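From the shared-data thread, chain only:
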Amino acid sequence: MKIKALLGIVALAILGFLIYYLNVQELLQNALTWIDSLGFWGPVIFILIYVLATVCFIPGSILTLGAGVLFGVVHGSFIVIIAATLGATAAFLVGRYLARDWVAKKLEQHKNFKAVDDAVAKEGWKIVGLVRLSPIFPFNLLNYAFGLTKVKLRDYFFASFAGMIPGTVMYVYIGSLAGNLLHLGAERTRTAGEWTLYGVGLLATVIVTVYVTKIARRALHKKIA
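Structure, as tokens:
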């Protein structure tokens, strides 16, 4: 018990240092630039950094967008989904075995969690998948929160993997449009035909994501009502 408490304190200290004393977003952008120079090892290092960011409650949006620039839509989406799933699983295990009390206190303000917990006891993987498609509280906290439920690790892993696909593809696609790693939102000279193709593809991706999310939200509300 003392070891668990010590590990929890160390983790919180590291997290606090990263958030308050370092420019996290700038560090992530620098990391993306470094990854771009690594060649074959780039995706491996990217996944390791993404997992660490997820466990440390650091938003991974810039990494997801950056994956679109570095690896393209197809490879980038696959790499991010793998990274996000591994990160979510690592946080799940920490929440279940190392930081239960701390996570429980964090969840006291989330009224929906009790309903989700009850639903998970009956239909674990379905609820995890639906919540991934239609998140009812922050992604990083959700990873730890599921560690307190009765869902099996196997069900959590595969349901998270599947549920994160639509949103991941959308954000990676948006990132791929930037063409500039240091300024992901920067404009880039393209032909009218290129802009048309990108626009149609982005619109289709957003529509599918919103549609799937809407269906998932309705199904989730029915199951936890």
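The chain has a mean pLDDT of 75.
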